[in-house]
Amino acid sequence: MAPTVTLLLSALVAWASLASAWRPLGGISRVVVSMARWGRAQRTGAAEDGPAAPLRTYFIETYGCQMNIADSEVVRSVLQGPPLQLLPAEAAESADVVLVNTCAVREHAELRVEQRIKFFQSLRKRPPGADEAAGPRRRKLPLIGVLGCMARRQRTHLLETVRVDLVAGPDAYRELPALLLRAANGSSTAAEVAQRSSPNETYADIAPLRAAEDRARRVHGFVTVQRGCDNHCAFCVVPFTRGRERSVPAEAVVAQVRRLVVEDGVKEVVLLGQNVNAYFDATATGDDLAPPEPELLARGFFRRVRRPHSERGADFATLLRRVAAIDRDVRVRFQSPHPQSFPDRLLRAVRDEPNVCKALHMPAQHGATSVLQRMDRGYSAEAYRALVARVRATLSPRHPTSGADVGLSTDVIVGFCGETPEEHCASLALLREVGFDQAFLYAYSSRLQTPAATGARRQSDSVAADEKQRRLREAIDAFQRTAQLRNALFETGRLRVVLVEAAADASPSSPWRWTGRCDSNKRALVAAPPFDVLDAVPLGGEAIAALRDWLQRLEALEVALPPDAQSLPPDTAALTALLAQAAVATGAAAVAAADVVRPRSYVVVKVVEARGHTLRVVPLLRTTLLQAHALLRPELPQLPLPPPPRAGPV
C-alpha cells in the first residue's frame, strides 16, 4: 500500500508542476503541492524528526491594517479546513499554535511584535505524553509563527535571533499546514516558502472565516479585492513585502460580499487593497466595463511604473457599482487608495451610488512638489489640490468649496530625506488650506528594502530625530486647529446618518448610550433622548418627501450642549414638538429610542457637539440608507424608493 501512496503523491506533484505554468490552474496546483508535501511529512516525519507533536488548537493575534485582519480570516479558513482541522483557542495560553500577523510599515510596530513573541515563548511546555528522550528537535508547544509583512522583511532575524518556529509571508498562507507539521517535527526548513512572492496569488478560491465573536459583534466585513503595489514610492516597503499588483476576479468579490451580507448580516462592507482603486480585472465581462488606460488615472497624475490595460475590463468603478447593487441597505467603503487612481469615472460612481460612503482617503504624503518628486509619488502638489477641488465639486455640490458633505482624510510624512524648513512649511500650508477631516501624520522612518534606503535611488535620512518630532508636533497642531474649525462650521447642528455599531462603554449615568459611524467615517456617540423618535422605515416615497421638509426645520433648530458634555441639552421642548408634528403629518410612528436605536440600524441624528473625530448626536428617526439619501442628499442622483409594505390581514 505504501509504495502505491508514494507513486500517487509523486504523480500529483509532477502534475502540479506542469499545471502551475497555466495561470487559471495556479491555485489548484498550489493546493495539490501543499497536500502532497503534507502527505510526505506524515509518512516521513517520524523517521526524520521523531513523532509530530499533536496540534489541536490555534490562536491568531493581528497587528496593522485592515488588510491584515482580512488575511487572518483567510488563515483561519486554512487552519480549520483539511488537513489540520484545528480549533480556535480562546487565548494564547490554551493554544497549540500561536500565529502573529504583522505589519512592517514602521519600526515601532515590529518592536512591539517582538515583545509579544517573548511572552508567547514563555508559555511553552512539552506536549502531553512527550518523551524528553525524543531530543531537542521535538518542539515544545505552542508553536510560534510570524505571518505577514514582517515575515517577508525580517525572516532571517525572526528565525535566528528571535527564534520563532516558522515564518510565512502574505503569499504563503496555503502552505501553513505543511509548514506547521514540519515545525512540529523540528524541521529547519519551515521558512522556505516565506521567501516567495507570487504574482498571481489572490486567495480568491478560499472563503475567509470570521471568528464567531466577530460575526456576532461586528457590523462590518472586510473583503480583499486587490493585493500588492507597483508604485514603488521611495519611502514604502509594501512592494517588497506584498509584491506586484493583482486583482481578485470581480465575480469572486461579488460572491464574497453577498455571503457576508446574507450569512453574517453585515451592514457595512469595506473593500481592501494596498492600492485598491488601481483594481482591474481583465477577465470580467459585461456592459459596464472600463476603457483602457490612461483614462483610469486622475487628471494631472501619472504612474512611474506603467502597466497599461490594452483591453476593456472591470476597473474599480465597475466593481464598486456591482458591489453596491447587492444590497442597497449595506454601506460600502474602501481602503487604501492612491490619489492617482481617482479618475472622474470613479468619482461619478461614488456620487451616484447612494450606499457608497461619501468619504475618501487621499494620501497626500507631502505638500511640496520637490519632496513629492523625491518620494516618486507621480504628481505635484498643485495636481493634488486640483483633485481635492474636483472631489468636493462632485460629491458635495451644495458646498463645493468647503466640501462640507464629503469626508476627506490623508497621510502626511514629515522629515523625509533632505526636507528643508521651507518644504515642511508647504505641508503645513496644505493641511491648513485643504482642511482634512482626519489625518494620519508620521515622522519619516527609514526602512530597509525601500528605494530611499537601498540601491541606486538611495537618499540620505538627513533630518535629525528631534527635529522630525518638532515638525510632527507642528503638523499635528495645524491639522487639529483646522479640523476643529471645520467641525464648528460644518458639523455642529447638522443632520447626519449614523450606522449604530454597539452599546457605548459609558457609565450608567451617561446619556451617550450607543456608538456608531457617520457616512463621513467620523465616530458618533448617540444619546438616549427623553423624547420619542420617529420610525421612518415603513414609509413610502411620498411620506419621505414630506418628512424632508420637517427635517429641514429640525436642522435649523439651535440645540446647545452643556459645557460638561455629560448631559443632554437642557431645553428639548422645541425639538420634541417638531418631532410630534412630523409624526402626525407623515404617518411615521413615534417610538422610544431604545426600540429602534440598536446595532445594525441606521439613524438620522442631529449633531450637538463635534470634537476632533467624534460627534455627540441626538437621534431623530430610524431610516434606511435609500431613505436617508433622499432625505439628506436630495441634490445627488436618487434611486426609486420601494413602496411601503402592505398591511397584513386583520
Structural class: alpha/beta
Tally of contiguous helical segments: 20
Strand residues, percent: 15-25%
What is the residue-averaged pLDDT? 85
Radius of gyration: 27 Å
Largest sheet: 5 strands, parallel
Helix content percent band: 25-40%
Uncertain regions spanning at least 5 consecutive residues: 1-51, 131-137
Shape: globular
Question: How many beta-strand runs?
Answer: 22
What is the spatial order of strands in the main beta sheet?
2-1-3-4-5
Q: Roughly how many Å apart are the termini?
A: 71 Å
Explain the overall architecture.
By secondary structure, this protein is of the alpha/beta class. It contains 20 helices and 22 strands. Helix content is 37%, strand content 17%. α11 runs parallel beside α12, α12 (344-352) runs parallel beside α14 and α15 packs parallel to α16 (465-490). It is globular. The chain starts with a helix and ends in an 18-residue tail after the last helix. The model is unreliable at 1-51 and 131-137 (pLDDT under 50).
What tags apply to this protein structure?
single chain; 650 residues; alpha/beta; five-stranded parallel β-sheet; five-stranded mixed barrel; 22 strands; 37% helix; globular; disordered N terminus
Concise synopsis of the structure shown:
This protein is α/β, with parallel strands linked by helices. The protein has 20 helices and 22 strands.
Topology at a glance:
Elements: H1 2-19, H2 26-49, E1 57-62, H3 66-80, E2 87-88, E3 97-102, H4 107-121, E4 143-148, H5 149-153, H6 155-162, E5 166-168, H7 176-184, H8 212-217, E6 220-224, E7 226-227, H9 238-242, E8 246-247, H10 250-263, E9 268-272, E10 280-281, E11 314-315, H11 316-324, E12 331-335, H12 344-352, E13 359-361, H13 369-375, H14 381-395, E14 407-414, H15 421-434, E15 438-443, H16 465-490, E16 495-503, E17 512-518, E18 523-527, E19 533-535, H17 541-556, H18 573-586, E20 589-591, H19 593-596, E21 602-611, E22 614-623, H20 625-632
Parallel strand pairs: 1-2, 1-3, 3-4, 4-5, 6-9, 9-12, 13-14, 14-15, 18-22, 19-22
Antiparallel strand pairs: 7-8, 10-11, 16-17, 16-21, 17-18, 19-20, 21-22
